[in-house]
Each structure stands twice: as structure tokens, then as C-alpha cells.
């Protein structure tokens, strides 16, 4: 009887995990679109402005987190020691909004550290923070990218 109860509990746990998104929150949207597919357009003086259009001086745009951009982006750089060598990041910010992150680490291991170089910048952009999960198997490179971004952001504090 105890074995049956244990099996039922395990099955219930697995079904709960299957119904959760990557953040461990239930996925109740019922919508197949993910956040990356949703256009981030806003209206400014009856003109639609998106991330691919040039922004007129003084125009106000809205980023993915609802922060207000004033069109005055700053480009900052930071460096940190990765697994294979130095990792350099270029961070574009507008106020508190991290607009873009680009990471370069030529000496990071292909298929391991290179995964962090490819994946982590997008996570940081979406979160507007370096408080994101490291890429599995590439912890040292992930931490180097986060450290380099934090170093770059110190230039605006």
C-alpha cells in the first residue's frame, strides 16, 4: 500500500512539473506564443515605433519591462576572467533598461563556454539584471559574463 501511495505521489509531482514553465510558475496562458514572439510596439504621436525603427529625438519608447527610454543610450564595456581567458561584454543601456548585451570570449571552450556567450546576454537583457541563472555546464563563463556586465554597469551608478 505504501508503494502505491509513493507511486501516486511521484506521478502527481511529475504532472505538476510538466505543467510549469521555466520559472516554476504554472503555465496558465493557453497561448502557444512565447514572449520572444510578441512584438514590443508602442504608439508615439500616432506612429508605431518598434525596436527596428529609428527613434526621433525626444521620442519615448517602451521596452519589454515597461521602462521609459529617452533615446539617450549609453554603451559601456566590462571584462572578467572566464574559463578559457578574458570575456569582454558591451552593454547598451538607457536609464535602468539594459537594451542589449554582447559578449565575446574567443578562448572559451566551444560547445560549453560558447553556449554561455550565446545564451546569457539575452537572459540579462530580458531580466534587465545579471540576477539570472547560469548556463548549465558553463558556470565559470556565465559568472564571468555576469561579472563583466556588473562592472560595465558601475559606469552609470
The SS-based structural class is alpha+beta
Quaternary structure state of the chains depicted = single chain
Number of helices: 3
Helix percent reads 25-40%
Structure description:
Helices cover about 30% and strands about 20% of the residues. The chain is α+β, with helices and mostly antiparallel strands and about 160 residues long. Strands 5-6-7 form a 3-stranded antiparallel β-sheet. Strands 1-2 form a two-stranded antiparallel ribbon. It has a two-stranded antiparallel ribbon with strand order 3-4. Strand 1 (about 40-45) and strand 2 (about 45-50) form a beta hairpin. Helix 2 (about 115-125) packs across helix 3. The chain is elongated. The N and C termini lie far apart (about 60 Å). Mean pLDDT is about 75; it is low at about 25-65.
Summarize the structure.
The protein is an alpha+beta fold and 157 residues long.
Fold topology:
Blueprint lengths: L1 H17 L23 E3 L2 E3 L11 E2 L5 E2 L4 E8 L4 E9 L2 E8 L8 H15 L11 H15 L4
Antiparallel strand pairs: 1-2, 3-4, 5-6, 6-7
Helix pairs in contact: 2-3
Key phrases:
single chain; 3 helices; 7 strands; alpha+beta; 157 residues; three-stranded antiparallel β-sheet
Amino acid at each position: 500500500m505504501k508503494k502505491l501511495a509513493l507511486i501516486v505521489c511521484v506521478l502527481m509531482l511529475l504532472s505538476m512539473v510538466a505543467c510549469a514553465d521555466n520559472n516554476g510558475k504554472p503555465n496558465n496562458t493557453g497561448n502557444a506564443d512565447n514572449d520572444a514572439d510578441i512584438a514590443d510596439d508602442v504608439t508615439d504621436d500616432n506612429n508605431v515605433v518598434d525596436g527596428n525603427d529609428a527613434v526621433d529625438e525626444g521620442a519615448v519608447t517602451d521596452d519589454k519591462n515597461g521602462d521609459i527610454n529617452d533615446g539617450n543610450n549609453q554603451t559601456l564595456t566590462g571584462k572578467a576572467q572566464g574559463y578559457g581567458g578574458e570575456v569582454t561584454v558591451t552593454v547598451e543601456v538607457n536609464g535602468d533598461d539594459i537594451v542589449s548585451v554582447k559578449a565575446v570570449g574567443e578562448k572559451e571552450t566551444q560547445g560549453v563556454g560558447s553556449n554561455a556567450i550565446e545564451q546569457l546576454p539575452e537572459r540579462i537583457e530580458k531580466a534587465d539584471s545579471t540576477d539570472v541563472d547560469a548556463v548549465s555546464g558553463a558556470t565559470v563563463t556565465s559568472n564571468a559574463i555576469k561579472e563583466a556586465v556588473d562592472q560595465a554597469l558601475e559606469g552609470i551608478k
